[in-house]
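queue> holo job accepted (magnesium ion)
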Amino acid sequence: MKTTKEVIYLLDRLKEAGFEGYIVGGCVRDYLMGITPHDYDITTNALPEDIKRIFPRTFDTGIQHGTVTVVHNCVNYEITTYRIDGAYKDNRHPDEVIFTDDITKDLSRRDFTINAIAYSPEKGYCDPFGGREDIKKGIIRGVREPNRRFREDALRMLRGLRFSARLGFEIEEKTYEAIKNNAELIKNVSMERIALEFLRLITSEHCEKILPIRETGLFEYCLPEISYILKQRGEEIAGLLKKADKSEDIALCIILACEDNPEKILKKLKLSNSLINSTLSLTEHYSFKIDGSKYALRKLLSEMGREGLLKLLNIKQAKGEPNISEAEAFIKAEEPIIIKDLNINGRDLTALGFKGPEIGKAINRLLDFVFLNPENNKKDILLKEAEKWRL
Ligand code: ATP
Ligand code: MG
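queue> job finished
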């Protein structure tokens, strides 16, 4: 495996100090699949205090779990001491973390075989659960006994579904059965964590996997409204998710567009306000028919902003609606017009004799007049138009 020179530097420093070090988890999996890793996690038999002694710039991120963040060449690397998890009380967090100096033991507490591979340039691969073979076969398989592992930490089930959708892998039979049998335990996981995994799942490359995933019953317990929607419209939704851009608000809009109260569901997911608002802006305009009208597009552009409108068009393209490419080209070239761009203001209207709420109404009418033709956005034309309404 090829690693970066920074990672080799960090592993060399550990070795010099008399410790083992491996890169582990997502970065090894991604590399073996031909995907450039987005970060490198390192695991070692050095204890947190050793790690802090060896590296000059560190800070504590999850020291209680044995993780120290090391800053090297302005990049953060998580270095975690080999550990085994103690008993789990709440289906989510181990009661205690026990350090070990055996890499195999550390790998055995990880969730899936494909995530339980370690690599060191010196020692090669450490892959006691056949993770490389499962990557070749395209299989998500729980490490050791999936049933017990999901009872320990119920979030693992949702992670399994997410990896299946991200990588396009099948969930191995025993692992799938274990998810079905333990689905109810997902209730013990916080909504924030559930939503995070769900968002990753629906923006995955192979989001068509949402159909076999639906059958595990996991969503029924953690996201009952969404489970119901997927039962009703799963095939249509999977098709649209596959075709549309992979973006959180687009995916949420595709799932929620036909609901009476999408806001209620979004709030239950405890999503950020900005994600809720951008999704609602899409669901509100989901059924809007795009015809050749430039007026309608300017109006939408002013309401949704360019980024929002392009996302709406992307969804419509996925739905196979007509006129989308032309609308997209138009929107990309067009400057959005909002009230503050109007070449007339409240004072001008007051001078014409408009009073109180009439002024706001007139401004909106003038904005509409400019949507019809941006050439109308000249003070004399706007004043003349407004004067007509005073007569
Ligand atoms: P991603 O590309 O999404 O970051 P990842 O595999 O790196 O994928 P992380 O959440 O960053 O996922 O976790 C790093 C590693 O820690 C995993 O590869 C896995 O070995 C282990 N891990 C993470 N969460 C769990 C868990 N809940 N139970 C067991 N092992 C876990
Ligand atoms: Mg990771």
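queue> The mean pLDDT is 96.
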